[in-house]
Predict the structure.
Amino acid sequence: MCQLLGMSSKAPSNIAFSFEGFHRRGGSTGEHADGWGIAFFEEHTWRIFLDSQPSAVSRLARFVCDHPIKSRNVIAHIRKATQGEVHLANTHPFRRELWGQEWIFAHNGNLVTPPDCEGLRFQPVGTCDSEKAFCWLLSQIAQVFPQAPTENELAALLKQLAAHLTQSGSFNFLLGWCDLLFAHCSTELWYLIRKAPFSEAHLADADLSIDFSKVNTPDDCMAIIATQPLTRNENWHPFLPGELRIFRNGLPLSLPA
Amino acid sequence: MCQLLGMSSKAPSNIAFSFEGFHRRGGSTGEHADGWGIAFFEEHTWRIFLDSQPSAVSRLARFVCDHPIKSRNVIAHIRKATQGEVHLANTHPFRRELWGQEWIFAHNGNLVTPPDCEGLRFQPVGTCDSEKAFCWLLSQIAQVFPQAPTENELAALLKQLAAHLTQSGSFNFLLGWCDLLFAHCSTELWYLIRKAPFSEAHLADADLSIDFSKVNTPDDCMAIIATQPLTRNENWHPFLPGELRIFRNGLPLSLPA
């Protein structure tokens, strides 16, 4: 299985600390050695880095750690291949354009019977279940909404579609659309909110600490979403199975019942 | 105006020598300082690096030069903004998926009246004329061909569509699709074929030479396509205005009249 990392932040923020621990799970502290990727939202578009090398030894991952990029939305993924060979085409996050807007998707889980995308508007380039699920999701969204809906309309549809796909296996995912980050849990997903008063955090995967009160202003606020907690001494909240949350500006939005 | 660089090669090959000279035109030996991008074909998908920084000073461009990637098809672009602000969303090459295959597009020129993409299948994320032209082209292709056509069928349509867009301004472009590289000239484009017997080449933009007989085998063959010749002592051929060429495995294909 794979691992997910997402960030939603009020102000453009640097995810280097979280990514430093996370990318070590790709072949060093974890077994997720079949590629990795990270996407940074930069108003209207996303900057994506992908590599089919293990993230723990990837020179590109080192470049991303050493040249941190500030962003309000980030989606990262490290892969442990279940379906589809180790190949750039099977490396998350995936990207498509709909309504002149970019969509970014990363999946943790395994869909035993992936959806059939033949004849759909969006079709997979690679061979893994995750890209098929993304193409199927986005094709359904495009069919229901000829134009961009509200976030609540989209969330209602997404929840239905995710429930349908979850019948085929585990389907935890992060989906980026404009300034929103959708996070869906079927088996395991955690989040935490960092806001004032900031304190020191210690990475679970490396002997590294950071005092967030020194790098943030009192106004800052960010949500970190991950397959497993990345730090030892912060207040991580588990998602419930079947739960979909939307994050904007570092906070979860309230969804209508 | 911008500058284009393309490569089609029989064997996966390193474009570092050509890119070394080319990327200096982005703010050092040239005025094309409004972003750059490069896409490498890796069987089924493309690896893309984009930056809105001038390529001559971009740390990512330095990374690409220092960690050369072997590929059979490469499309690179350095931007001098004519329409659309300096922004990642306006940085070439652009990418879309059609029929489960990736399409990569870069443009040199200026379309005074860009095509209207409203309601089309593919819509621009940014604001520049080039992405609008790409979305319009690909939407027409998707409408005419519900499934992938032959390369000759595609070339015939592409020639018509390019002629139509050329009425609005200059429209030199490179288009990557699977293992094919389409190159269209409206005002200026050059190509050369490198094959045995290989000799030494000297970059026009830097005091740098390479002896291709030492880095290639006699079987190797590659085409380099560029807005302006990149070397001083090789046999560059100009495209004719209105000419569309398709390259595969380092050679131009013969097109039906």
